[in-house]
Amino acid sequence: EDQVTQSPEALRLQEGESSSLNCSYTVSGLRGLFWYRQDPGKGPEFLFTLYSAGEEKEKERLKATLTKKESFLHITAPKPEDSATYLCAVQRRSNDYKLSFGAGTTVTVRA
Amino acid sequence: DAGVIQSPRHEVTEMGQEVTLRCKPISGHNSLFWYRQTMMRGLELLIYFNNNVPIDDSGMPEDRFSAKMPNASFSTLKIQPSEPRDSAVYFCASSLQGAQTGELFFGEGSRLTVL
What we know:
The complex is a heterodimer. Chain A is an all-beta fold. Chain A is built from no helices and eleven strands. Chains A and B meet through strand 5 and strand 9 of A and strand 5 and strand 10 of B.
């Protein structure tokens, strides 16, 4: 059974205060690791795909990195509009459709 | 371009009633997913369709749940009879070719409350 653990559960930041979210995973043959953002009352929105250890992806103030056991989502100089729940998901090499999601980290950025 | 459209957005029903949730995927997408989200279990895959054919329904909780995709532009998830433990947000998502890139397009969800 794939396991995805995200920490912390909640993160409160001041605007401009950079921080990182963690996603640790246990999966038999990782095919890919994915980050999504979910706003209240909305469906998850895709952010990044990471396929191999050492890979990095960036989008505006977000940067995702991957190691063999975990992934980090770095938020640099966050703004209030970065407030959301960030979800991490993994996919097995043997399966090209199933994503196993973590419980998410809820980020609140205060102005 | 319109995204994934789900209806109803909110449904409140009594235990034992039938519930039907509807989904219109993005035009041109050949993969459709139904997910359920709860505080306790997070996001769980219920069923996956590819080219309108159910490929994996192992996540469907029990026989009270059924899903259909009669054509490329419409899918339903039915719960009969509904129970309080079915209360959750149900998401439909669509994509090109499964989840090979990890990019699924989710609808805004249907929040179900069973009293």
